[in-house]
Amino acid sequence: MPRFMGFVRMEEGSGAPPQALFEAMDTYIGEQAAKGVFLDGGGLFGTEDAVNFVVRKGETSRVDGPYAEAKEVVGGFAILQYDTLEEAIAGQAEFAELHAKYWPECSMVATLRQISEAPPEAADA
Question: Where is each YCII-related domain found (predicted)?
């Protein structure tokens, strides 16, 4: 069965979601977990606690938050498993609709990407 990563991008500093969304998500995630679709996931802390390692021209440097340039950040993620891509898309649409219904003032993008099961091929130098 193909696995997918769903994640939510939203404006930094959007505030906490309303309690109604937390309750709806608890129900939804419980149902998806019972069906074997939801494997793992959760919300992420803000970028003020983030640590990045930047690689440029063969040099690695550590950059700690906060990041003044961050306008849109990943707010949460889920590892999901579906039988088909169509089922995964329908599930991600349902997830996005929960946000539209229970947090209508939120602007966010719910992204779905399939997880590669094959190792990447090396690039020719």
Answer: 7-90
Convert the pLDDT of each residue in 73-97 to its tens digit: 888 999 999 999 999 999 999 999 9
Distance between CA atoms of residues 111 and 32, nearest Å:
17
Closest CA to 6 of 22, 24, 29: 29
Say if CB 46 and CB 73 are below 8 A apart. Answer: yes
19-76 residue pLDDT tens: 999 999 999 999 999 999 999 999 888 777 788 898 999 999 998 766 666 577 888 9
